[in-house]
């Protein structure tokens, strides 16, 4: 049975080291190559779980797999899949068939800047596939397994844009809102069972994609000051797993959401987010 008491500020090392014992032998990380996905791979491996790592860049995944096997002494499987393509989820399911599955995390996302009418439909379809269709197929598939065995855990990753919306990057906020609300609902449905489900909502996080797009000068320095590391957000996600259904990562992000909801209108929040990208 999951523990639903109050979460302590410090993770219980016994809990972290016994993820395999608590949830099962294998974890699948969907979007595992770098950043938050890589941090999830390392965290579950530190907890004794073998890891199925899924992403588009097979060579980088193989390097990560070798590092994880060496550092943690667990088994790994690398699966190349492009979540924007039809059949991607089925490729993952075939790779995990017959394994003792105990954990899933959907980290992958796809976004494209521009107004709705200026973005080619093919790009819209690709974003819908990554952020909604493949996500939902994977969540559905592994929840069936976890519910049937009354054992397992899911941590899905959302974004502050899923709370605020994201003008000029609309599908990103919409997709993250779908992941947020779907996972919150399932997390509630799973209370009082042996399956722990949580969604963690991230703000600015120091991923390779953020660093490669970081502006120079004072603006870039300001972003670096407020950003969390992937390891920090993943640590918090596991500290809260089994205690909270929906987690906003980091004290700054928690305070920001509280302030906007308490002191500002929805229109103000939307326009504020749009101000970063408006033409």
How would you portray this structure in words?
There is one protein chain. A seven-stranded parallel sheet has the order 3-2-1-4-5-6-7, sandwiched between helices. The longest helix is centred in the middle third of the chain and has 29 residues, at 121-149. By secondary structure, the chain is an alpha/beta fold. The protein has 13 helices and seven strands. Helix 5 (88-96) packs parallel to helix 6 and helix 6 packs parallel to helix 8. The chain is globular, with a radius of gyration of 18 Å.
Report low-confidence residues grouped into runs of 5 or more. Answer: 1-15
Taking all residues together, what is the mean pLDDT?
89
- The H/E string reads HHEHEHEHEHEHHEHHHEHH
Oligomer designation: single chain
Through-space gap between termini:
52 Å
Shape: globular
User: Widest sheet: strand order?
Assistant: 3-2-1-4-5-6-7
Total helical elements: 13
Could you name the key traits of this structure?
279 residues; alpha/beta; 13 helices; 7 strands; disordered N terminus
Summarize the structure.
53% of the residues lie in helices and 15% in strands.
Write the layout of secondary structure elements.
Layout: H1 13-17, H2 19-23, E1 26-30, H3 35-46, E2 50-55, H4 58-72, E3 76-80, H5 88-96, E4 101-106, H6 121-149, E5 152-159, H7 161-164, H8 170-189, E6 195-202, H9 208-212, H10 217-226, H11 230-240, E7 246-248, H12 251-263, H13 266-274
Parallel strand pairs: 1-2, 1-4, 2-3, 4-5, 5-6, 6-7
